[in-house]
Design brief:
heterodimer; A: 316 residues; D-Maltodextrin-Binding Protein, domain 2; 2 domains; 5-stranded mixed β-sheet; 10 strands; globular; B: 5 domains; two-stranded antiparallel sheet; 77% helix
């Protein structure tokens, strides 16, 4: 028994020494960096791309599938290390809620500007179903084209789930479009895409929430042009809601320990910045060429080695 | 008149209905109600209407045949948002304690002799002196101390604050209570971590280790090695990697197991199932799902057995567990995702825990049921043979109760795989996650393939576990070594051949993919284009013909139905439901269902609950009609019953998300879509229980009927249906629960009911409280119906003399 305890003590000593010596070199911890995967292609491919970059730097990486809104709480608790696609208007609230509780840090912003806004599929404009689009004023008169079975003759706007933007669209519609429009909340992104398919079959125009960069960019999607956004124009900020969405940021988030445990990886991560074209090319490998997400990431990393080496390598 | 006299319940029902209608009429004409409802909030905001009238005014309004506004329907009126000053709570607690003590004493007295309350009072009024002191002590000293201890010191509180209180308390427990200092070597600092947080993360780590172990046996990996060494060690030793079992080995072993446990049939099933999974390139996600099911299912079974046995042994445990089980079974799974995520982190372990919560209750129920059915003779025989407690339980009772316990195991496996998709919301890897990913790109064909894999795993696992449990041990066999260990030896041979094959594979296949070792995801054969084509054809073909149906259903049925539910005054709803409760089970039932309703009414989601109720009731009515008809037809024939039961199993595990998309394309983002999904899912139990109920009608009664010369139809209407009816009603009961679950999942299509708020709770600040309380609201609806049907069915069964 005594022998055993002394062995354990020796082992513990060795381990402490090892960790101390490791620390003096300021190298990254070998514990895996946990990267979340959500349910859309560009995000999953980017997760594998970033994971690939980390692995290239000698880190261990782990992937975990996570709910898009719940992930920020997990980052805060340290169950997940980073998140690389924080969309301003959709996840901003959850992101800042977690930040306010402490434990989540802002790890910089991507070059890509995002737009999250309602709009119509390209063929609605091509068929000239509502003349004057994409100006929002055109909508005031052609609400009937956008009516659905359950909208009672009014034009219907299919918004994303209520958790995404709260009452922003109902407020805006009331302020700018009037009584002939209703806002219906879809339950998930799938519902939006299903509605595009159904509307095209039926030949009815449809006005839905969407964002770019997204896989629908391929088939063409026209965003409605609302009056310019300015700070404080929304009702919840004290304005009259007579404004559209701003061009949004795409941020990165990390757990507060990440800079200390993996300094090199954190530095690389904070400098990573993808633009819309790069994100689109990642998604296209899966959505258009039918590759698996992992293969797409491997291919993207191989094709764009200069790009990401520049992001991570310079100055190190 | 005589007919009415003989059926007093009918008169009662009439009275309830008349009262209900009167209450509705008191709020005005139907069209006015709609206007009132829409205009009310605005009018209150502008100050045109007083939301709450005073007491005397209310009385005069009622006398003049009008309901005062606070009895109408809108929770925005604040009628139901009781703002309670804490002192009232303490006074109420005091009174409650007193009432409880008196009732307790009175109840124990009427057990021995029948006395009225007044007699009791005359005889035992001195007791009151003691009770008053106890209740004042409890209400004014103990309760406030506990209250401030848990919740801080609120001056006033409202029931609408309940989610905040629950969330704060959860967070306090999780992040603040009992802090201990933990050294984090990575950042070289001591941190304060709450005790519970450390404990739950410990449980998570243990579960994760088990899951990773099984996963790496099947798929290879490094985590198990890391668990015994460290990540540092691993990066220094590049060779340390646990290789996967080649798929050929898993496939052959499953087939062998099937043969060893049952015979050729099961071997074929296992072989085809695993071959399908591997050839279609779903090997990796399937094994990921399998690895967490292989942990979640046994844990659920063991927990279920443990609690089942415990509640069999102890009456008080049974009494405590019964309502908890009721709630757990009708609580929608989404409502505990957030708490599980907060307490256990994100990942496979969280998915496994959510699955265990979902799958254990039926196992407990069925274990208890099975043990209770064991006849006392068996127990006596065991005692006489000199069994001690342990032997009595494991050698006598459990084997005798095997039939019910096995149904429990079957249910656990079905529930585990039914959770595969939902568990992926909180981090479970595997088929569920890939399925959601496929659906997000509208690749229904691919999702269908993935869904089939889930069903296959469920069926194979179920059959294998059944066969294993049914296997008789041959105690007298004295076999030589080779025969005794033939299966393990055969496994060794299979393993060897598999390894050799995969080694050969490295020479045959170039380009990094060894098809004899692991078939990577998306590299297998795929039927996706064909399936997708079929679905597209279906959509194109039926699209236009269904549009008119959709329009008719929505405009003529669903919208009016929804409006009428929403325009039900709160008082009328209470009157109707409690009235029915009274008719079914007397004053006790009326009070129980009243309490369930009150819980919903006190929170701020009354109108949302009405929408949920509207969708669920439409779904239940439609499913019950379809299910009972289909079940009755199929029960006439042995083969047909078997086929329909298999279909039921398939649809119970087939992820509903897959058919949501095509239905959504056909019917748009409307209530029709939700209801069709509800009907597909909720018809399962109605059908299953009808078939089982009709098949269990005793043979001799059927013969007696035949001898009296009844026709086929007469036998069905007069003998089979009435006898099977209580069992069928239990099926309807399950239908209600299933329908409620699916209505909640319908939130992913786009609804405005409780479900939408439950999903929203995933990102709320008060996510824990909102999720749980909304879940409890749904559970309350379920419990109300459950209580009514159960009470009715048990009375009916007593009348018919069947057990």
């Amino acid at each position: 028994m005594k022998k055993f305890t002394s062995k354990v003590a020796a082992a513990a000593l060795v381990m402490t020494l090892a960790s101390v010596s490791g620390q003096t070199l300021a190298a990254d911890s070998t514990k895996p960096i946990v990267i979340p995967t959500h349910n859309w292609s560009s995000q999953v491919v980017m997760a594998y791309v970033i994971g690939g970059i980390f692995e290239d730097m000698g880190n261990n990486v782990e992937y975990v599938s996570a709910d898009t809104q719940g992930v920020y709480e997990s980052i805060r608790n340290g169950d997940v290390t980073i998140s690389h696609e924080v969309w301003q208007s959709t996840f901003g609230a959850s992101f800042y809620a977690a930040m306010a509780k402490g434990g989540l840090i802002d790890a910089g912003t991507h070059a890509a500007l995002t737009l999250e806004e309602v709009g119509v599929p390209q063929w609605v404009v091509d068929n000239n179903m509502c003349p004057g689009l994409p100006d929002y004023k055109a909508l005031i008169d052609c609400y009937e084209v956008f009516a659905t079975v359950d909208s009672g003759g009014k034009g219907r706007i299919l918004e994303g789930p209520q958790s995404w933007h709260g009452t922003e669209y109902p407020d805006r519609v009331e302020a700018l479009l009037g009584d002939n429009w209703v806002v219906k909340f879809a339950g998930s992104a799938d519902a939006l895409w299903a509605d595009h398919v159904a509307a095209e079959k039926e030949g009815r125009a449809t006005l839905t929430f969407n964002w770019t960069p997204n896989f629908t960019d391929g088939a063409g999607f026209v965003f409605i042009e609302w009056p310019e956004y300015y700070l404080g124009c929304r009702k919840q900020d004290g304005g009259d809601s007579k404004c559209g969405s701003p061009k949004g940021w795409l941020k990165k988030a990390a757990n507060y320990k990440f800079p200390k445990t993996h300094p090199a990886a954190y530095m690389a991560f904070s400098r990573m910045s993808f633009d819309a074209g790069q994100i689109g090319s990642m998604a296209a490998l899966v959505d258009l060429e039918g590759m698996s997400h992992k293969d797409a990431a491997t291919k993207w990393l191989a094709d764009n080695e200069d790009t990401w080496r520049a992001m991570t390598g310079v100055g190190m | 008149m005589d007919y009415l006299k003989n059926n007093p319940k009918l008169v009662q029902l009439g009275v309830v209905l008349i009262g209900f209608v009167v209450l509705i009429l008191m709020t005005g004409q139907y069209s006015e109600i709609i206007d009132v409802r829409d205009g009310f909030t605005k009018a209150v905001e502008k100050g045109q209407i007083v939301p709450v009238t005073g007491f005397s005014e209310s009385v005069s309004m009622i006398l003049s045949g009008q309901l005062p506004p606070q009895f109408v329907r809108i929770p925005e009126l604040n009628f139901l948002n009781l703002v309670v000053s804490t002192s009232i709570v303490y006074i109420l607690t005091t009174l409650l304690i007193m009432a409880g003590l008196i009732f307790n004493n009175y109840y124990s007295k009427i057990q021995s002799s029948k006395i009225s309350l007044i007699d009791w009072f005359k005889r035992y009024w001195t007791k009151l002196f003691l009770y008053v002191i106890i209740s004042i002590f409890g209400g004014f000293f103990v309760a406030p101390t506990l209250f401030t201890w848990f919740f801080g010191e609120p001056g006033t509180s409202s029931f609408w604050d309940l989610p905040i209180i629950v969330t704060d308390y959860g967070n306090f427990l999780m992040y603040e209570w009992f802090p201990i200092q933990v050294y984090d070597p990575d950042i070289e600092e001591f941190e304060d971590k709450a005790l519970i947080f450390q404990i739950t993360r410990g449980i998570s780590a243990a579960l994760l280790f088990c899951i990773a172990l099984i996963r790496e046996i099947l798929l290879g990996g490094v985590k198990t090695i890391v668990a015994f060494t460290s990540w540092d060690w691993l990066s220094e030793n590049e060779w340390a990697y646990w290789p996967a079992l080649p798929w050929t080995v898993v496939c052959a072993t499953t087939t062998m197991l099937g043969y060893a446990l049952q015979g050729r049939g099961l071997a074929m099933l296992a072989c085809f199932g695993t071959l399908y999974i591997s050839i279609f390139g779903q090997w990796e996600p399937s094994m990921e799902t399998l690895s967490f099911v292989l942990i979640a299912a046994p844990v659920s079974v063991i927990l279920g057995l443990f609690f089942g046995v415990w509640s069999y042994k102890s009456k008080s445990v049974e009494v405590v567990l019964a309502p908890l089980l009721n709630i757990a079974q009708s609580l929608p799974h989404f409502s505990y995702l957030v708490p599980v995520m907060v307490f256990f982190g994100i990942g496979d372990q969280a998915g496994a825990i959510a699955t265990i919560i979902f799958a254990t209750p039926p196992m407990i129920r069925l274990t208890l049921l099975g043990l209770k059915r064991v006849s006392p003779e068996v127990l006596d025989a065991g005692m006489m043979s000199g069994c001690h407690n342990y032997q009595l339980m494991f050698k006598v009772l459990i084997p005798t109760a095997r039939r019910d316990i096995l149904i429990g195991v079957n249910q656990v496996i079905m529930q585990c795989l039914a959770m595969a998709v939902i568990a992926s919301f909180i981090g479970a890897k595997g088929l569920g996650f890939n399925l959601l990913l496929a659906l997000n790109q509208l690749r229904v064909g691919q999702a269908l393939e993935l869904g089939l894999c889930i069903v296959i795993i469920a069926v194979v696992l179920d059959k294998l576990s059944m066969a294993w449990a049914n296997k008789q041990t041959d105690y007298f066999a004295d076999l030589p070594f080779m025969l005794r260990h033939k299966w393990s030896l055969l496994f060794g041979v299979i393993l060897l051949i598999g390894i050799v094959l995969s080694y050969i594979g490295t020479f045959i296949f170039k380009g990094g993919i060894n098809y004899l070792y692991l078939i990577p995801h998306t590299k297998g054969v795929t039927l996706e284009p064909m399936l997708q084509g079929g679905i597209d054809w279906f959509l194109d073909y039926f699209f236009f013909s269904l549009q008119d149906f959709n329009k008719w259903l929505i405009v003529d049925i669903l919208l009016p139905m929804r409006e009428s539910y929403l325009s039900m005054p709160v008082s009328a709803t209470f009157f109707l439901v409690m009235g029915i409760g009274y008719i079914v089970g007397g004053i006790r039932s009326a009070l129980i269902v009243g309490l369930c309703l009150l819980f919903i009414a006190l929170l701020e989601w009354w109108d949302r609950a009405l929408i949920t109720a509207y969708m669920a009731s439409f779904g239940v009515i439609a499913s019950a009609i379809i299910g009972i008809t289909a079940g009755s037809l199929c029960a006439q024939n042995k083969l047909a019953s078997k086929v329909i039961l298999l279909l039921c199993d398939t649809f119970q595990t087939f992820p509903s998300f897959v058919y949501l998309i095509p239905v959504m394309i056909l019917f748009g983002v409307t209530d029709t879509t939700v209801l069709i999904a509800v009907i597909i899912y909720a018809t399962i139990p109605a059908t299953r229980y009808t078939v089982e109920g009709l098949n269990s009608v005793p043979e001799d009664l059927q013969d007696a009927g035949s001898m009296s010369g009844v026709s086929r139809i007469q036998r069905w209407v007069k003998i089979e249906l009435p006898l099977a009816f209580p069992h069928i009603m239990l099926g309807v009961n399950q239908t209600v629960i299933f329908a409620l679950f699916m209505v909640i999942i319908g939130a992913f299509i786009g609804t405005e009911d409780l479900g939408q708020f439950i999903i929203k709770a995933l990102s709320d600040k008060q996510g824990i409280g909102n999720g749980l309380l909304l879940g409890l609201c749904v559970a309350s609806i379920g419990l109300t119906v459950d209580h009514l049907i159960q009470t009715w069915a048990s009375r009916r069964r007593k009348l018919l003399g069947i057990n």
